[in-house]
Amino acid sequence: MTRRKRPEASSGAPSRPPTGATSPLAVYHQALAHHGFVADASQRSAAEALEACFDAVHGHEEAQGKPATGVYLWGPVGRGKTWLMDAFHHALRVPARRQHFHHFMRWVHRRQFQLGGTPNPLLALARELAAEVRVLCLDELFVNDIADAMLLGGLLTALFEQGVVLVCTSNQAPHQLYADGFNRERFLPAIAAMEREMHAIDLGEGQDHRLHPGRRHQRYWVVAADSGNRAMPDVFARLCDGQATTQAPIELGHRAIAVLGRSGSVVWCDYTELCEQPLAALDFIALVDRFEHILLEGVPRLSDARPMGGIARGTEDGVDRVVAGDRELPPLSRRDDGVRRFIALVDECYDRRTPLYLEAAVPMESLYPHGHLAFPFRRTLSRLREMQLARFGTDTF
Questions:
Q1: Are 237 and 375 in contact, with CB atoms under 8 Å apart?
Q2: Beta strands 266-270; 220-222: pairing state
Q3: What tens digit of pLDDT does each residue of 165-189 get?
Q4: Strands 135-139, 96-100: parallel, antiparallel or unpaired by DSSP?
C-alpha cells in the first residue's frame, strides 16, 4: 500500500502552522496568541526575515522594490526552524517547492543523470527548476557526501542567477557546512553563494520546543535481550487490527530484507536487518513510502567504546582532514555505519510524520552519548523524544 503524506513540522504546540494567517509573521503572532507558543526573540527575528522575503517575492510595497533575499535558519535541535519555514511556505502565493534536503538531492542526482550529454547540465537543471518555482524551501540541509558537495557549488550559483529564492533550515551555519570534508574547496562556491544571497539567522539561544508538554504516547521500550517482557508483538497486533499479515521479506535497494511481520501498512523489522545491511537514505524513503507504521526491535547500545583501529585508505566518508595528499581519518566505532542508517531512518520517519516504534537495549539517552556521530545524533535524540508524544502520529490505541 502506497500513500503520500505532506511533511509536517513541530515547534511546540500545533504540529503544523495555524491556517488563516496571511504571512509568516502573522502566523507567528497567531501561534503566540492562540496556540500556546512562548515569545522567543530568536524566533521573532527569523519570522521577520521570512516576512521580508515574503513581501519581496510577492512584490508588496513593504519591500520597496528590493530584490528578494533568501533565508537560512540554523541552530540546534528543537528551535522551531522547520515550523517557521513551513509557516512561510504555507503562506506563499507564488509557485514554490518544499522538500527535505535528502529528497531534493535525490532529484538532483537523477536529473543530472538524465541530462547526460547536455553541455551544462547544472545550468539546464537550474533553468528547469526556475521555470517551475519562484521559491525553493529545503529542510535539514546537511552535507557529508562528497558527491553532494561537488554538485552544490555550481547548482546553487546557477539557481540564484536564475532568480530562484532559497529558504532552508540547518543545524549548522553556512561556513560550518562540510567542515573538514574531503576536497572541501569544491564546496566553497556553494557557501559563498549562500552567504551572498541569503540572510542567515542563528536560532541558537532558547529552549528545545520539541519538549513542549503534551500527552505522552509511548513508542520506545527498553527490553533486555533475555527478557520475555516484549512490547512489539502486541503493538504489531494492534496496528494490523485484522489485516492479513505475512513474514515474507521486503525488497529494499535490490536486497531482500527479512521481516518479523508485515501487513499492508505495518512492517516489523530487526535492527540488524534494517540498519546493518548496505542500505541508503533512498531505501528508507521507499520504506516510508510503503508503510504507515515501522517497528524496529533489537536496537543495541549504538555508541561503542572500542574504536576501530583505522579505515581503509581511500574511504571518503568520515574524512577529518587531508595532509600531504593523504587522508587522516577520525576514530570510528564498528557500529557507526549502522548508526548512520539509523539516523537516516529516524529522519525520514520524522519528516513524513510516520510513527517509529523501537525496542532497545538501553534508554534513548544512552544510545549514543559519545562518538564520531555525536553531533548529528543529537538531532536524532530530540526527534525520538518528540515521537513519544501523542501529537506526533495518528495511532490512538
A1: no
A2: unpaired
A3: 999 999 899 999 988 788 888 889 9
A4: parallel
Rg of the chain taking only CA atoms, in angstroms: 22
Provide CB contacts within 8 A for 111, sequence distance 6+.
121, 125, 128
- The answer to whether the CB of 228 falls within 8 A of the CB of 78 is no
Largest CA distance in the chain: 68
Q: What is the 3-state secondary structure (H, E, C) of the chain?
A: CCCCCCCCCCCCCCCCCCCCCCCHHHHHHHHHHHCCCCCCHHHHHHHHHHHHHHHHHCCCHHHCCCCCCEEEEECCCCCCHHHHHHHHHHHCCCCEEEEEHHHHHHHHHHHHHHCCCCCCHHHHHHHHHHHHCCEEEEECCCCCCHHHHHHHHHHHHHHHHCCCEEEEEECCCHHHCCCCCCCHHHCHHHHHHHHHHEEEEECCCCCCHHHCCCCECCCEEECCCCCCCCCHHHHHHHHHCCCCCECCCEEECCEEECCCEECCCEEEEEHHHHHCCCCCHHHHHHHHHHCCEEEEEEECCCCCCCECCCCCCCCCCCCCEEECCEEECCCCECCHHHHHHHHHHHHHHHHCCCCEEEEECCCHHHCCCCCCCHHHHHHHHHHHHHCCECCCCCCCC
For the segment 230-279, what is each residue's pLDDT rounded down to a tens digit?
Answer: 899 999 999 998 899 999 999 998 899 999 999 999 999 999 999 999 99
Sign of CA dihedral 277, 319, 153, 68: positive
Contacts of 161 (CB under 8 A, 6+ apart): 126
Q: Which amino acid is at 346?
A: V
Q: Which three cell numbers stand for residue 63?
A: 519591500
The residues with which 294 forms a beta bridge, in sequence order, are 267, 356
